[in-house]
Design brief:
Blueprint lengths: L3 E6 L8 E8 L2 E8 L12 H13 L2 H6 E9 L2 E8 L2 E6 L12 H4 L6 H32 L8 E2 L3 H10 L3 E11 L2 E9 L6 E7 L16 H10 L6 E10 L5 H12 L2 E6 L10 E8 L6 E8 L6 H9 L3 E9 L2 H10 L9 H14 L7 H7 L2 E5 L5 E3 L4 E3 L1 E7 L10 E8 L6 H18 L7
Parallel strand pairs: 7-10, 11-14, 15-20
Antiparallel strand pairs: 1-2, 2-3, 4-5, 5-6, 8-9, 9-10, 11-15, 12-13, 13-14, 16-19, 17-18, 19-20
Bound molecules: 3-(4-hydroxy-phenyl)pyruvic acid and fe (ii) ion.
Amino acid sequence: MGFKEIAYKGLETRLTKLASHVLKNGNVLIEVTNTLTKVEENYPNYPNNQIINYQTIKESMNEEILNKLQKIVFEIGGKYIGIMMGHNTELVNYEIGINNFTSSVTRLAEYKEIIRDYQTNLTKITDLTEKLLYDIFDGYAIQEFLLTHGEGVYDIMLTVEDADCIFKRATRAGAKIVKPPKVYSDRQGSVKMATIQIPQTDIQHTLVENIDYNGEYLPGYGRSLTKDVIFDKALTKLPPINLVKIDHCVENYTWNQMMAKAEFYAQILGLHKYWSVDEQDVSTGETALRSIVMASSNGQVKIPINEPAKGKKKSQIEEFYDFNGGPGVQHLALRTYDILECVRLMQKRGIEFNTTSQRYYTNLKSRLQKDRIELFEEIKDIENYGILVDYDPSTKYIFDEEHGRYRCNYILQIFTKPNHDRPTLFIEIIQRHHHNGFGKGTFKGLFETIEEQQRLRGTLTESD
Ligand SMILES: O=C(O)C(=O)Cc1ccc(O)cc1
Ligand SMILES: [Fe+2]
């Protein structure tokens, strides 16, 4: 989709547990992550308690003991991560109980330089241990995610001004803590990050507060030594696709969950209700859904929350829920300034889009005619690509002499087919001509294009 790799972590950046490619197009950032090894089934509990053990060790150590220490061996690998301290001939071994986390054993020699001051060193060991534990923890969570949902959106990262404040609000509102706030640094500066989960789901948000970071992505990421070369070579052969930003990100839930989740977003992130539709607006006679769009006060974050509504046949929200094995992200809407060119180039790269019926365009053309409205795009192009149009006739203010018609605000939208094997996650491409809303018209149109796919998949079955 014309993304360029801007950052990477993995084997080349000395990580053995996880690999990530960070891709960018305009202001759209997508991180694609996978694990490098199978994670142990008996995964230890959340790393915090082990880290606390280290903290206690550090605090309980008095000056006298520290002075008596003759030899410090910092060993990683084998059966445990631990610090062995030699007190005369006695060896004290603190284990933190991680099994087989790496096969490479690093010994004192390699750390001679940094093992000088015991206090600072212990802090370093704690940081390193914590980092490794987080990687193991992430690896475990990613594998759990893949087992349950298949490929999909694992985390929706949000840039915030004050990570501590949002984190506190979220936990007070009942969010599960995945990672408490912590400062991460490298040579390019620091960020503070925390990760929370929406209650009763594994939908998670990483909150990122930029302290003074000016690198490409986040601390700890490097540049791939080989992959970006291959990426670039392939990309330069194709014309660029210009995306602008993530317009909105939609979550699907099961029956009667929408209100509670919307309220939760209001409590944790201070989002407000921006728009909503119910089964009266979005029903095809066969299936239905309800949706509330939650937005941040600056309008930059928009999260529509869907739930199924009763219809003759199974709602597409239920279909998603069944295949996804629970709630999750249904689609990411990416904004462009030229939807025709964007769709043309995405098709060139092999991406398939949902089609729209002939009836839709016959209807659209006669409505435009009746309202005396002219679009900037050729209607035949819009029709060829199967793009949906929602215009707001109340904004009909500029008269176009040449065409003898009016201009008004409108949105152009189209959905890709699901991007993976399960009919779960897909992408929407959206272009806005001064229209910031979610039109009831396109909502219904988009809903119908998925229903059509449901019919083809054979999942448009009688509802229970
Ligand atoms: O208006 C939009 O941006 C939509 O994405 C509408 C929509 C949302 C959910 C569906 O299951 C189908 C259509
Ligand atoms: Fe959408």
